[in-house]
Model the fold of this input.
Amino acid sequence: MTVTHHVRVHRSEENLAREDQLAWKIAEVAADPVDVDQDVADMIINRIIDNASVAAASLTRGPINAARAQAFSHPVSTGGIGATVFGAALDHRTSPEWAAWANGVAVRELDYHDTFLAAEYSHPGDNIPPILAVAQHVQADGRALLRGIATGYEIQMDLVRAICLHKHKIDHVAHLGPSAAAGIGTLLGLDVETIYQAVGQGLHTTTATRQSRKGEISTWKAHAPAFAGKLAVEAVDRAMRGQTSPAPIYEGEDGVIAWMLDGKDAAYEVPLPAAGEAKRAILDSYTKEHSAEYQAQAWIDLARKLGTENPALRDPANIEAIVLHTSHHTHYVIGSGANDPQKYDPTASRETLDHSIPYIFAVALQDGGWHHVDSYAPERAGREDTVALWHKITTAEDAEWTRRYHSEDPDVKAFGGRVEFRLTDGTTVVDEIAVADAHPLGARPFARDNYIAKFRLLAEPVLEASEIERFLELVQRLPELTAAEVGELSIIARPGLLEGADAPQGLV
Done:
């Protein structure tokens, strides 16, 4: 049965015992040698496929080229055999922290993998690159890898359920550093003390502001979780060498909660599995059918439905105004409530357009769907009729949709809203959607076949057919994989693809 831990700030003179600290409780969960349930194992396989899908689609993009070049500038460290990098030959390896870096950027670049939204936001699939990199480096088998990934998802999602970061403009990767460190701890079978120190370091080194997701959103958006994963690997390495963490990292009077989050009077209720309880959090997460910020998923589905049913809605000449009544987050982060002119700028970066629900709704309405490349192309963003329609779209916070967004009841929780079209002829068109079609409660929930179809769609332009089949056959046997087979859990680009990609030079 899940245990809820009361977490508050403690004065130094209170001398909070480490056994009562949240980082220690996390470490206890990570060190608990529970088995992975079959349905959890199946979902972990799905998410490894999902990560490989979006990584394949990113193989020649600038941030991935740079990260891969950086990774291969560093030799394999002495403690293992190294880890693979997406796109490269399986025997071309680098140190696990650098593989976590390169692969983390590839997974995150297109904003196209899994998500979990509660008190905070997250993409828990970001845990997979660092945990897999360490598994390959130390030659762990498939069962150990499964256990490590289950922990990574569990810890990040439990923190996300309880502790809001974004209202204090702290980026969500602050929950990823501790979770990835915990997952690596589980993978390696480390003791509670060592994991505790790694979790504390993982948090201490991965707090960052949300400016990476506002204004001129830069390529750092893809690098941010990869950096957290890299630092998690390094935190575990230091902890294994006996190095310690600031403590209490969460609860201290000069700690994260007191000075970065809700302040010295703050308190949180953090749910974690009880001793012996299986880690099942991954089953509450969901992936993306569309390459866009998660709050846009349901809106894309609704827009394509409305545009297909009523093509007149696609013409700005017929539209007086379009208002998306939605949650606080959607309005203030990716909607007009952000007060960010970049969200209405046809020359904005792909990263910015990905975080503009007015843009996304306009394009999905006109095109009847969404494409991970074409929908962001400069010529698509600059199309005259699209710009005209786009600038007629605003968002408004609706208390009911905010309530549903934050609900813990899976039958109530929603990420969509209600759209109201005011037409030039005086009529209105109103419709609503609660969750994306691909969501577990949506019109077409994603299952194994959907993950495989997504992988084939994104991989076919860059992988040979035989490589697609090799990877799919291998990953679907994850629980029984040998250490050598875990070392082959990567994707190899078509001959010549990476050789033709830019390889920017840096310091090393």
Q: What stands out?
A: The mean pLDDT is 95. The chain has 20 helices and eight strands.
